[in-house]
Design goal:
Largest interface: A-B, 24 and 17 residues
Strand order of the largest sheet of chain A: 3-5-1-12-9-10-11
Helix content of chain B: 25-40%
Oligomer: heterodimer
CATH topology of the largest domain in chain A: Aldehyde Oxidoreductase, domain 4
Number of domains of chain A: 3
Radius of gyration of chain A: 27 Å
Helix content of chain A: 25-40%
CATH architecture of the largest domain in chain B: 2-Layer Sandwich
Structural class of chain B: alpha+beta
Largest sheet of chain A: 7 strands, mixed
Structural class of chain A: alpha+beta
CATH class of the largest domain in chain A: Alpha Beta
Number of domains of chain B: 3
CATH class of the largest domain in chain B: Alpha Beta
Largest sheet of chain B: 5 strands, antiparallel
Strand content of chain A: 15-25%
Number of strands of chain B: 12
Distance between the termini of chain B: 48 Å
Strand order of the largest sheet of chain B: 4-5-8-6-7
Shape of chain A: globular
């Protein structure tokens, strides 16, 4: 019988009451007395020299408080990059300055040139139109391969080229990889594009800067997944405000998907301007503005090669990727195509030799950074597409080829620097075969044929690395931050708990799932536990939520802090019960002395902690509040197997998803309903990438897909009902909950399943099509059929 | 958006007067194109004259051979009220945008805007509709004049659309994946005196009649009659959602499907 509370139960999400009834408190809901509004004047040219900015007429417009330009930020730090990559020659990556407002040149359509602060948002916008710009248009650098040719126009004049870095991983493996390819019985090669995406969270970005002249304190309200990271980066590197004088609050946040991890110039501007003007300053992005100012995702162009021996064992893998950085380095951009991508190239397979080359390239486009999955979808897509192609070339069953090469013994050290602690890839594939009903596929294919459609089946596996850590490792890899997480557990006198977590919930349901863990540990009702997050003033320093890390890392910190609470509470109970600490047991919210009928309720002990009349004051302090920081020993490695069935209209090229099945291994699961929701959402985004979404620039650097009229987001009727399963559970061995993380799996595992299915359909029509680049729009599929 | 005045007349005469009194005034139907345009600051009318309060521009009447629709009638009303009298038109209206769009957007607004990817122009042209304005009656064949261009004069209002009801008709819309406007839409209408085929979404010249298909179908109203007929890719639109050749191909496919569905 399913549990109705604690770990493994599926209570409804308590936060949904406010989200679904319009009573959430989002950043745009925050309005401060006397606040002014900023409008950013953004470049409509992809690459242009700024000869002059005449703000005289605009400054005289009604309501204008002040107009800022790049010159106002010359004494201010630039937007920092949080990860430094060392290239294959041992040199540091090229790292351009990233000013808050453009200085000298505008480098993408959307680059902010001036900021108008006025009494109303409309006045700010009116005045921005009156600014006279003298801009000299320069050739736009858009195509990555052209960008790194000798003599190409440079995005940054002070860099030696548009190449941010040329990364080889593992460089020492390269000769052995080459040799394995020379000796291979079969080599499969595939060139593919991982399409550029725009995250489009439902809530656009918003920032409100505030300054208190009496105290000298600055406050920033912002749409962030990690307010402490923003406080550190913006305070220390941009504005020079010490952290004790800066408070960052990320209240309810309406979706992040990665694009709200990063520190953006607009946040720094609002904080800076509030102090300069002694007046709160607010910015709310329009949807149009979001398209050209939120960091984009993906945008890799890759060539991957798989070598096999005569028995179809994978012997080596090599891949060359061009990764678009856009015009500036966003916070974690350099890490995405390297440490979050190269380290995953082994996938679920025991390929002994792997070499990954990545050239990161500057272009005159919006900066590109992490988007749900970040690097891992790009790795999975390459690997699972090339394996599928190899199976076709060899005439073998794609599932059998995968099974033959699965890693089956754990722990397993890959040739790309990571060690998988647990997994059972045959188990998830077995489960997939069952829930996807492979046995019924032929009948379904015949039924499709009978109505003039062509059915295809695509299967793939994935592995991801979540809970990015440990800190000492990521430090060696170039991270300029630690990647631990924190929690303070405060027990009140009457027994209720408040958990102040460094994780941030922006749709993940932490307010529901975190209390389930604590309730289970103590044996009390979940309603006695409240989660506080998102405010640097009342939570311990934390690194925030991304990379499916919250439960694995943040949850572990919470468990550690709660363990400290329980240890102390047992001491109090032992004192009152006149027993030894070691004899105290905590079960169902009752402390009892082993082997006796003596017991104390949880609430009696918590009350004693704050009313310490009968209390071991000589041994322990009053109160019941503990903090823990948790730095994991390793990444976690969720894995799974996905299957997609598509129906293709041979006359139009239109693809519809008919069935989609996902068998995931997330280790232990706290709230199955929330986990399923995360998988559903991830698959929705993965199908969006595979069929619909694509950010397209023309050669002049204009974003052609700059609104929902041209950027296709998945809608409910684009998606099928899913069969999802997470009953295969190989718990993580190194965190106290045995959890692995589930937030990104769907987005990582689904694109190759869709494309494999479409290629299968095309092949079954007798078309010699081995690949179609995403998004598989009707027009693209039709072209592939008719080439 | 820029600031502007708003008037909400209750008669066609008042609306015409309001538009005539100000060169920069603009009529506002359901606002499904104009309001986003204003929000983007891509238009700056001095005054919007809302047509939604004019009772004589609302509603639908059908006399068996002609359906007459007030110019300010929203798509959602058309979708439900002509379901019996002109099912193909009802299906077209019921598949424009989403419910919010269908509750605001109007047939007059759509025809006055003449978006090259809109659905209503195909219905009007294939039906041989009469576009009734405050000043005159315009045959659909004389009304559409290229992208976003019509025979309407400055200040002229579409007050009613009269659509002859065909013996058989069907509209096939192949949606552009993002906007869900028609990447290509084909409306086929069979009348006693011949077949009319109107194509939207495809041509650089906006909605047009496919004469070869009409000729073939007028003799033999079956998909087989279209076998081998193609549309030249020249003159088709091309964008990130489809090439000229793809749009031309879709016209032939959708026309066959429309005929098959109507026959």
């Amino acid at each position: 019988m399913p549990k109705d509370s604690g770990i493994g139960a599926s209570p409804k999400r308590r936060e949904d009451v406010r989200f679904l009834t319009g009573t959430g408190n989002y950043t745009d809901d925050i309005n401060l007395n006397g606040q002014a509004y900023v409008h950013f004047l953004r470049s409509d040219m992809a690459h242009a020299r700024i000869n002059s900015i005449d703000t005289a007429a605009a400054s005289a417009m009604p309501g204008v408080v002040r107009i800022f330009t790049g010159a106002d930020f010359e004494g201010v730090g630039g937007i920092p990059c949080g990860w430094q990559i060392t290239d294959k020659h041992g040199e540091a990556m090229q790292e351009p300055a990233h000013p808050v407002l453009a200085q000298g040149k505008a480098r993408y359509v959307g680059d902010a040139i001036a900021a108008v602060v006025a009494d109303t948002a409309e006045q700010a916008r009116d005045a921005a139109e009156a600014i006279e710009l003298d801009m000299e248009e320069l050739p736009a650098v858009i195509d990555m391969k052209a960008a790194v040719q000798e003599g190409a126009t440079k995005v940054h004049d002070d860099l030696t080229s548009n190449l941010c870095y040329d990364w080889g991983f593992v460089e020492e493996n390269k000769p052995a990889v080459e040799e394995a390819f020379a000796n291979a019985a079969h080599v499969t090669t595939l060139e593919l594009v991982n399409n550029r995406l725009i995250a489009n969270p439902m809530e656009p970005r918003v920032a409100v800067g505030d300054f208190n002249r009496a105290t000298g304190d600055s406050t920033l309200y912002t749409t962030s997944q990690n307010p402490h990271v923003i406080r550190l980066l913006m305070g220390a590197f941009v504005l020079g405000i010490p952290e004790h004088k800066l408070r960052v609050i990320a209240p309810d946040v309406g979706g992040g998907f990665g694009t709200k991890i990063f520190h953006y110039a607009e946040e720094a501007f609002c904080t800076f301007a509030a102090k300069a003007l002694n007046r709160a300053v607010k910015w709310t992005s329009s949807r149009s503005e979001a398209f050209i100012s939120d960091a984009h995702g993906r945008d890799h162009v890759s060539t991957i090669q798989l070598a096999l021996d005569a028995d179809n064992n994978f012997t080596a893998l090599r891949t060359d990727t061009y990764a678009n950085m856009g015009a500036y380095l966003s916070t974690f951009a350099p890490s995405v195509p390297t440490w979050l991508h190269g380290t995953l190239m082994a996938g679920n397979y025991k390929t002994p030799l792997i070499y990954v080359n990545v050239k990161a390239v500057f272009t005159n486009t919006v900066p590109v950074d992490a988007y749900r999955g970040a690097g891992r979808p790009e790795a999975t897509y390459q690997l699972e597409r090339v394996i599928d192609k190899a199976a076709r070339e060899l005439g073998v069953d794609p599932i059998a080829l995968r099974r033959q090469n699965f890693i089956t013994e754990f722990p397993y050290a890959t040739p790309v620097a990571v060690e998988y602690d647990t997994g059972d890839y045959n188990a998830t594939m077995d489960k997939l075969e069952e829930i996807a009903d492979f046995a019924g596929f032929d009948a379904r294919r015949a039924a499709s044929e009978a109505k003039g459609k062509v059915r295809g089946l695509g299967v793939n596996c994935y592995i991801e690395a979540c809970g990015i850590a440990p800190s000492n490792l990521v430090g060696q890899l170039g991270a300029r931050a630690g990647l631990y997480e924190s929690a303070t557990v405060r027990v009140n006198a009457t027994g209720g708990l408040v958990v102040m977590t460094g994780s941030h919930s922006h749709g993940q349901g932490h307010e529901t799932s975190f209390p389930q863990v604590i309730a289970e540990m103590i044996g009390i009702d979940e309603s006695m536990v409240e989660i506080v997050h998102g405010d640097t003033a009342n939570t311990p320093m934390g690194m925030g939520t991304y990379g499916s890390r919250s439960l694995a890392v943040g949850g572990s910190a919470m468990v550690r802090a709660t363990e400290k609470i329980i240890t102390k509470a047992k001491k109090i109970a032992a004192h009152i019960l006149e027993a030894s600490d070691a004899d105290i047991e905590l079960k169902d919210g009752q402390f009892s002395v082993a082997g006796t009928d003596k017991s104390l309720a949880w609430g009696d002990v918590t009350l004693a902690a704050y009313v310490p009349h009968n209390y071991p004051l000589e041994d322990i302090e009053p109160g019941l509040e503990e903090t823990a920081f948790y730095d994991p020993a390793n990444f976690t490695y969720p894995s799974g197997a996905y299957a997609c069935e598509v129906e293709l209209d041979p006359e139009t090229g239109k693809v519809s998803i008919e069935r989609f099945a996902a068998a995931d291994d997330f280790g232990n699961v706290v709230n199955p309903m929330i986990v399923e929701g995360q998988v559903h959402g991830g698959i929705g985004q993965g199908i969006g990438q595979a069929l619909l979404e694509g950010a397209v620039y023309n050669e002049d650097g204009q974003l052609l897909s700059a609104s929902y009229m041209d950027y296709a987001m998945p809608r409910a009727d684009d998606l099928p009902f899913y069969q999802v399963d997470h009953s295969c559970q190989t718990p993580c061995t190194h965190n106290p909950l045995g959890v692995k993380g589930c937030g990104e799996a769907g987005a990582i595992g689904s694109p190759p399943a869709v494309v494999n299915a479409v290629v299968d359909a095309l092949q079954s029509m007798g078309k010699d099509v081995t690949h179609v680049d995403m998004p598989l729009s009707p027009a693209r599929v039709w072209s592939a059929m008719n080439e | 958006m820029y600031s502007f005045d708003v008037e909400k007349p209750t008669s066609i005469a008042e609306a015409v007067a309001a538009l005539g009194s100000d060169d920069e005034a603009q009529a506002l139907g359901g606002g499904q194109t104009l309001i986003p345009t204003l929000k983007q600051r891509l238009a700056s009318p001095s005054k919007l004259v809302s047509l939604s309060g004019i009772a004589e521009m609302q509603g639908i009447s059908a006399d068996g051979s002609v359906v007459s629709i007030g110019g300010a009638t929203p798509h959602g009303v058309v979708a439900s009220e002509v379901a019996q009298s002109y099912p193909a038109l009802a299906a077209l209206a019921g598949n424009i945008g989403d419910p919010a769009v269908r509750n605001r957007g109007t047939i007059g607004g759509s025809l006055a805007n003449n978006d090259p990817a809109a659905c209503y122009p195909a219905a009007a042209l294939a039906s041989g509709a009469t576009i009734v304005t405050n000043a005159r009656e315009i045959a659909a064949d004389d009304y559409f004049d290229g992208l976003f261009t019509t025979a309407l004069e400055e200040g002229e209002i579409v007050t009613q659309v009269r659509l002859p009801v065909p013996e058989a008709a069907n509209y096939q819309k192949f949606v552009q994946p993002a906007s869900r406007f028609a990447l290509v839409g084909v409306f086929v209408a069979k009348f006693a005196d011949g077949v009319r085929v109107a194509v939207t979404g495809a041509s650089e010249e906006g909605v047009f009649r496919w004469a070869e298909a009409e000729a073939a179908l007028s003799g033999n109203f079956s998909a087989d009659a279209l076998e081998g007929l193609t549309v030249a890719a020249d003159g088709m639109m091309a964008d990130i959602h489809g090439s000229k050749a793809y749009r031309a191909h879709l016209i032939a496919v959708l026309t066959k499907r429309a005929v098959a569905a109507a026959a």
